[in-house]
Amino acid sequence: MKINFKVRFKNPVFYAQLLLSVLTPILAYLGMSLADLTTWGSLGQAIQTAYSNPYLLGLVAVSLFNQITDPVTKGFNDSQQALGYIKPKNDKDYIHRNY
Q1: For residues 88 and 10, is the Cβ–Cβ distance under 8 A?
Q2: Are 77 and 2 in contact (CB under 8 A)?
Q3: Looking at the predicted structure, is the pLDDT value of residue 70 above 90?
Q4: What is the tens place of the pLDDT at every residue in 13-23?
Q5: Which residues of 25-34 are buried (b: 16+ CB within 10 A; e: fewer)?
Q6: Concatenated DSSP letters for the chain?
Q7: Distances (CA, A) of 41 to 16, 55, 63
Q8: pLDDT at 1
Q9: 12-30 vs 54-68: helix axis angle to the nearest 10?
Q10: pLDDT tens digits, one per residue of 25-53
């Protein structure tokens, strides 16, 4: 799987998506919301419960897979264009054409 992680790690949105792709299935399975994580202990308990539940680990794995792969390219790789990036693409840097 060829994915340009160097560039993805430069984008703060990637970290937020990564965190949410792990927490969302855990919280949904446990019937909790982010508002329920009011202490480090409650977060730790949720993670410990997830770690000890193979089904829940599978849900997290599927969520991570969906977050990491690019649905607009064939297969599991980033496009050749995305693999060539050295920093996250900023659409404001490009001229848009109306078709």
Answers
A1: yes
A2: yes
A3: no
A4: 999 999 999 99
A5: bbbebeeeee
A6: ----HHHHTT-HHHHHHHHHHHHHHHHHHHT--GGG--SHHHHHHHHHHHHT-HHHHHHHHHHHHHHHS-TTSSSSSPPHHHHT-SS---GGGS-----
A7: 21, 22, 24
A8: 81
A9: 150
A10: 999 999 999 999 999 999 999 999 999 99
Longest dimension (CA), the chain: 54
Residue recorded with tokens 């078709």: 99
Tokens encoding 36: 């329920």
Token readout for 11 is 């984008």
Q: Indicate whether this model's pTM tops 0.85.
A: no
Of residues 34, 40, 6, 38, the one with CA closest to residue 20: 34
Length reported for the chain: 99
Contact (CB, 8 A) for 8 and 51: no
